[in-house]
Amino acid sequence: MQELIFSVVKNSLSITFFVLAMMLFIEYVNVRTQGAFCRKIQKRGWQQVVIGVLFGLFPGCLGTYTVVTLYSHNLASLGALFATFVATMGDEAFLLFSLDLSTALRVSAVLVAIAVVGGFLIDFVWKRSESTCEPTHFEIHEHDDDAHEHSWTSSIQENVLHPSSQRAMLLFGVLLIFVLSVLGEIGHSHDVFPGLEHVGHEHHIDWFSMTFVCLSLATAYVIAIVPEHFLQTHFWEHIIKKHFWKILGWTTCIIAIVHVVDSWVELQNVVSQYQWQILIAAVLIGLIPESGPHIIFISLYLSGHIPFAILLANAIVQDGHGGLPLFAESPKTFVLLKLAKSVIALVLGFILL
Q1: Is the pTM of this model over 0.85?
Q2: How far apart are CA 228 and CA 240, in angstroms?
Q3: Are 313 and 279 in contact (CB under 8 A)?
Q4: pLDDT tens-digit readout, 128-181
Q5: What angle do the packed helices 331-352 and 78-87 form, to 10 degrees?
Q6: Which of 59, 75, 151, 237 would be 70's cystine partner, CB 3.0–4.6 Å?
Q7: From residue 135, how far is each of 73, 193, 203, 238, 286 by CA, in Å?
Q8: Cβ–Cβ under 8 Å, residues 296 and 65
Q9: Do 324 and 254 contact (CB within 8 A), yes or no?
Q10: Three-state DSSP class for 291?
């Protein structure tokens, strides 16, 4: 039980930290550029879909988290978000690329085609507001103008040696993330199925831990150099108070539920009996916003028990951990994306079968 609780807490904190760090960086850049960053991204148009596909193709969930952050701040279009969520295979991409490169490329090619067409179509039908960022996000204040005229690094020594209570807590939290990353304790734990416990796992851990080491150092640097106004108004009042507990709470609940269900149900025995039923199961399991359960379809495909159509259907619907912060920010958008991807996966899966 202790191991389960530790795993849930560790995964939830790692996801929440990455999303909040990305929010901090985007807010920091936008304030430093006096809102030019926000306006430039919003004017990208069709290029946002291409960018979303590229982020989605990154193995793991970090690219997906980034696009979710941009979308939640009205910087990325719904089509770009859809393209990212279709193109991604989450952490399962590490495993599939390490075991069967040709299959991984085939799956990725189909996902990219669906993502590009669907993303362009959604943006064509769903015209996103061309106004500047929402008033509740990325506000530029009078003090930001003053900070923009002076060096933000001139007071770094004062900020670190005599920090406010909020800055001290944030630096301590980031330092803790850094230590856990160096020790390899932070990241996604994988409850993989028999026979796949060690395959491809080592390719993921070092890369993910290294990412968090760099991310924690960059976050600590930004927290240390920003003026007190930015720290209090933009980071503490906006990001921490408005987003931290919501993202952490939903992420923790969903990961805990997945762990409990997985301990009760032998998914591999259930889906390996009937082909048409397996396709439906692949789509249903793809709805789970978690990396781990989807590995079963890679295992079954590589062992010759299921056809390519079922593997592809699951890849279309699933998005690893990427859906967790989106569900916390906009449950409606999360549900709509999952429904759209499920319909595409079922239609294409039945055609290929």
Answers
A1: no
A2: 15
A3: yes
A4: 544 334 444 444 444 444 444 445 555 777 788 888 888 899 999 999 989 888
A5: 50
A6: 75
A7: 10, 47, 42, 12, 35
A8: no
A9: yes
A10: coil
Rounded CA separation 107/229 (Å): 48
What are the pLDDT digits (tens) for 67-104?
888 888 788 889 999 999 999 987 778 768 767 888 98
Rounded to 5 degrees, what angle do the CA atoms 311, 314, 320 make?
120
Cα 188 from Cα 59, distance rounded (Å):
13
Q: What would the pLDDT profile of 290-349 be if each residue is shown by its tens digit? A: 776 777 788 778 877 788 999 999 999 998 888 888 888 889 999 999 999 999 999 999
Judge whether residue 38 has pLDDT over 70: no
- State whether the Cα torsion 327-332-335-336 is positive or negative: negative
Rounded Cα–Cα distance for residues 308 and 151 (Å): 57
CA 20 – CA 39 distance, rounded (Å): 21
Overall residue count recorded for the chain in this entry? 353
Q: Residue 260: how many CA atoms within 13 Å on its side-chain side?
A: 7
The rounded distance, in Å, linking the Cα atoms of 75 and 182 is 33
Taking the C-alpha atoms of residue 152 and residue 239, their distance in angstroms, rounded to an integer, is 20
Of 96-100, 102-106, 211-215, 245-249, the range with the highest mean pLDDT is 102-106
Separation CA 207–CA 200 (nearest Å): 12
Specify the pLDDT at position 203: 44
Tokens coding 267: 């998914």
| Unique residue bearing structure tokens 């800055």 | 167
